[in-house]
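User: My instructor asked us to take a sequence, write out its structure as tokens, and then describe one feature of it. I'm not sure where to start. Here is the sequence I was given:
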Amino acid sequence: MVEKQKVWETNNYYDKAHISSLDLNNPGIRLLLNLSKKSRKILDLGCGDGSRLSLLSNVGTGVDVSVKAISIAKKRYPKCKFIIGNLENLTFPNDSFDLLYSAYVFEHIDNVEKVINEIKRVLTPSGNLVIICPNYGAPNRASPPFTGSRINKFISGFLNDLLNVFRHVKTLNWVKVTPIKGEYKSDFDVTIEPYSLSLSKYLESNGFLVEKNFQTWEYELEAANILQKIFRFLGLVGIYPFYYWSPHIVIQAKKI
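Assistant: Let's start with the prediction itself. The structure tokens for your sequence are:
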């Protein structure tokens, strides 16, 4: 079992996740609460201990690769349905769910494109997709396991953003990182760095209409340096590409 999967089988991991799952100040959670009120069948991809799903629905379905997570979820929330499964190969029929979401999971996925293909398959026409995750792939950011040059990342990322104004994104090409071994801290188990702009454009190139791509500058660290504060200002006034550089990704899309 790889290091990140060992972390996912500990009680401590899910005790911490339980608290963050119920954070009603999170704009993504508020969005899900609104969408769930008019949704009949809800699927949580990477459901963890089931806390977030139980907040949205008493009869929703959750899928997670962790045996430990599913065991906890079934005991805590018996009215919901929880399944051990691979997000790259879902066992549900086509057009099964009208609301599908993934919260703080994409940064742990090995093949994001394959997962998005499965999402598209099991989501109903006009069904809603919500993706929430850290925006580690933005040119001005990096995950805890990132060991490359931040300057090179910024320059190449910024130039790539300028090129993406004029083209479709056919592959995500997100930076892969190696999880940090040893004592677990937040996001030490990240394996890939998601990015808001490329994800939005990739979805639009693969059968989705992106309805909202939220800014989450309220999650910026208080000790942010002067450059981050400048990027924040540029993002808040809607200047491209800084608009997409906020700390977290919260995207709402509809299958078309």
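For the description part of your assignment, you could build on this observation: The radius of gyration is 18 Å. Try explaining in your own words what that tells you about the chain.
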